[in-house]
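[09:14] KT: can someone run the structure on this one? pasting the chain below
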Amino acid sequence: MMTRPLEGKTAFITGAARGQGRAHALRLATDGADIIAVDLCGQIDSVPYPLGTTEDLAATVKLVEDTGARIVAQQADVRDRAALDAALRSGLDEFGRLDIVVANAGIAPMQSGDDGWHDVIDVNLTGVYHTIEVAIPAIKEHGSGGSIVLISSSAGLAGVASADAGAIGYAASKHALVGLMRVYANLLAPDNIRVNSIHPSGVATPMINNEFTLKWLADMAASGAASGSGNALPVQILQADDIANAVAWLVSDQARYITGIAMPVDAGLVNKR
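[09:31] RB: done, structure tokens below
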């Protein structure tokens, strides 16, 4: 009989329409969790590549349902705390409890100017703050603890960016998630709610696999700014499932005493730098 370690639990995942968010939803659903999935399903002007769509979110719903798990999917902007809270409430009305949060929604407007700075801070930092805040009361309500995972980046552990404001904002926002994680790990420990962050190097998702981000990476390499920044292990890029596997472990009882850590899943990139 297949072990389903998250049976009876509910996970709230932002940025779930595609990429890492979809991988997290599928992995946690396979482990038995019900899923509350949220995505903007719209475009942000400073982001040069296409963001997820309603069709992408519908595909995530179908894939999760194919695992046998239940899912409630809503469109919501993590920058809008009230809309995010309403989306979460829709899932809570269906499932009745919340145990796991994966704050995954993020953008990478690397070649953008000041608008990119403001948008990336609003989405990648303020959006994660909103995600945690709307989730805390629901996790506390059932009194049996929980797990919150913030999806940061290897750029949240090393000072890698171009001179473009969007790229600087990306690195700053991902570094800021470490501070956010450590504060909430302390604040929520008395309620047995664990908080950790994961820091991937490049992952093969639409955030990277688009002409704009690939050109930015190529320009960084050509300028020497990315010198020595390749993965230490012999793999050029990670897969979304690699990060989802780490999330699944962190939210499981196998990691029940792990809180307040910034965990690289980066094939040795940060250590190599």
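[09:33] KT: thanks! The longest helix spans residues 114-142.
[09:34] RB: yep, looked fine to me
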